[in-house]
Write a structure and sequence with these properties.
Chains A, B: Keywords: Glutamine amidotransferase, Glycosyltransferase, Transferase. Chains A, B: Its EC number is 2.4.2.-. Chains A, B: This is Class II glutamine amidotransferase. Two copies of one chain form a homodimer. Chain A is an alpha+beta fold. The first copy, chain A, contains six helices and 15 strands. In chain A, 24% of the residues lie in helices and 33% in strands. In chain A, the strands form three sheets. The first copy, chain A, has a seven-stranded antiparallel sheet. Chain A has a six-stranded antiparallel sheet with strand order 5-6-7-8-14-15. In chain A, β2 and β3 form a beta hairpin. The N and C termini of chain A lie close together (6 Å). At the A-B interface, β3, α2 and β5 of A face β3, α2 and β5 of B.
């Protein structure tokens, strides 16, 4: 279900332009109108990472909370946003609005999911909780997405009492995402504010904007920006999204079951299946529909 | 440090009036200008509790996020708000802005603190984390407040693998708050969205508004409301605050080291020390200053 938007930068950056297009898909140019959420990881003067979140159960294209997000420029190092079309889990329930957040080893981790876990995964994972075998994290709402997130974090915290090296961590997370992708339709973004992981179970695209910057035109509205006017030559901004946001830029597609990790606007980890496959947007939408999710 | 505002209701209620006064203390009528946070627990159609939070590092009296909170009426069952005057922990760091939130047994728990933990408590509790003896929750920011919250939750989760009865829970939480109060200046509000606990280490007041409703005048601004116009005869709203918000209502003071739990706007649990003492507002402010906190 739903669509994902992520951003990773090497300097605090306002996601306003991308979000202005993305939010239109929450009720105006598309039907993801059962609420939205956005998580901003911001850097303090001393380099600490703080998180703030905005959630609303109104459609993002007209939500006053989304208006605030657009008009109050928040400069963040990492952002995860999600617009929701409810398939599993009650509509109009804030506990079901992504991104979901949990503290892991003294870090805030945000997670958003697009897809649908299988009934059998949902039953088995609920049983783990009932039997007391998933002791660290428990879902608050009723979505399959939060259940998958808690599953992943319970595995992680059981495997590592303290934070392992980035390489070990990203390899472990890729393996968990592969498992989840084998048990449902699973596209996700995960960030701890310092890095952002993107896993494509079906559809996910990215681009990295850097010098020389040019103009970009939104696909979902009459809006363009010339990034030359708002950047310095050192800026690097990666944007990750379910379906490309601009009509004149070259978006890279993430292969099915490929895992990328972005840090400071660059790719720092990549795990690609030996046989690369790519879905067309039409195939991705059809697959989502066939499993009761939506794109 | 800082000031607290809480609300517990038997029907979804807009905290706008109280918040309109409270936010003035964040830079206009008082000096708590190092950011603010507010957590709303809202009920979905099926009775599920969802949480949304707003945090900003701008002073609450002029913050655009606080403007949104005031103009976008959010009707909640429980609310916890906090305005911050930084004493411990970096200013301008979102990771240090209350309320702090953690998931406990599949519930979101929000916590806000006014006071200052002792250096010895801070050292000992950091040592627990370093030695791996505080495995469930770890602070993200650098405040003594979040450290105290994590201490309390680690004790709770070690003592109870699953949620105990309310009576057992409230008794346990009172004992933990007493311990924290013996190791610092400790006023706090804690809520899981269904109940709200208020513990007074020095200053905390409450009132319960119910029929017959009357008019109320804010102490911090030229604003009044006639609650008759905006309520039904069944409504019950408890408001808890560091220093009374209105000038013409009778606020009850919570005794030093007294613990109250509110549910649906009523007191459902009370643990009062055998010898009741009350501080004057002047004494409370003087005590806060003497330990390096602020009220």
């Amino acid at each position: 279900m739903c669509q994902l938007l992520g951003m990773s930068c090497n300097t605090p950056t306002d996601i306003g332009f991308s979000f202005a297009g993305f939010r239109q898909r929450g009720g105006a140019t598309d039907h993801h109108e059962d609420g939205f959420g956005i998580a901003f990881f911001e850097k303090s003067d001393s380099g600490d990472i703080g998180l703030r979140q905005f959630h609303d159960n109104q459609p993002s294209y007209l939500s006053p909370v989304a208006d605030l997000v657009n008009h109050y420029p928040i400069r963040a190092m990492n952002v995860i946003a999600h617009i929701r079309k409810a398939t599993t889990g009650e509509k109009n329930n804030l506990a079901n609005v992504h991104p979901f957040v949990r503290e892991v080893w003294g870090e805030q981790w945000a997670f958003a999911h697009n897809g649908q876990m299988t009934d059998s995964f949902i039953r088995r994972t609920h049983r783990l909780h009932t039997n007391g075998n998933a002791e660290h994290y428990t879902p608050v709402g009723t979505t399959d997405s939060e259940l998958a997130f808690c599953y992943l974090l319970n595995r992680l915290k059981s495997a590592f009492k303290t934070r392992p090296s980035d390489e070990t961590l990203f390899t472990f997370l890729t393996a968990q995402c592969r498992y989840l992708s084998a048990n449902g339709l699973f596209n996700c973004l995960i960030s701890n504010g310092r890095w952002q992981l993107a896993y494509a179970g079906s559809l996910l695209f990215y681009l990295i904007r850097q010098a020389p910057f040019g103009e970009a035109y939104l696909s979902d509205g009459e809006m363009s920006v010339d990034f030359k006017d708002v950047t310095t030559s050192k800026d690097k901004v990666a944007v990750i999204v379910t379906i490309p946001l601009t009509s004149n830029e070259h978006w890279q597609q993430i292969a099915v079951d490929e895992c990328l990790v972005f840090k400071d606007g660059a790719i720092v980890f990549r795990d690609t299946p030996s046989k690369k496959t790519y879905m067309t947007i039409e195939e991705g939408i059809a697959l989502a529909r066939s499993v009761g999710a939506s794109v």
